[in-house]
Structures are given as C-alpha cells and as structure tokens.
Design goal:
By secondary structure, the protein is mainly α. Helix content is about 95%, strand content about 0%. It is rod-shaped, with a radius of gyration of 15 Å.
C-alpha cells in the first residue's frame, strides 16, 4: 500500500516538477541574457 502511494506521489511530483524545472531554466536564461 505504501509503495503504491509513494509511486503515485512521485508520478505527481514529476508531472508537476518537469514544467516547473523548464520554467526555472527559461528564467535563468533570461537573467543570463540581461
């Protein structure tokens, strides 16, 4: 039971984390350009 829950949480974190990481990378590029 705990394993499945951890997996679901990890999948959700990955689904939410990937776009957040891409956004942060874009912001870093914008800061470097300035």
């Amino acid at each position: 039971m705990v394993f499945t829950n951890d997996r679901c949480l990890r999948d959700m974190l990955l689904a939410l984390g990937i776009p957040v990481i891409t956004l942060m990378q874009q912001k870093k590029l914008d800061i470097l350009r300035r």
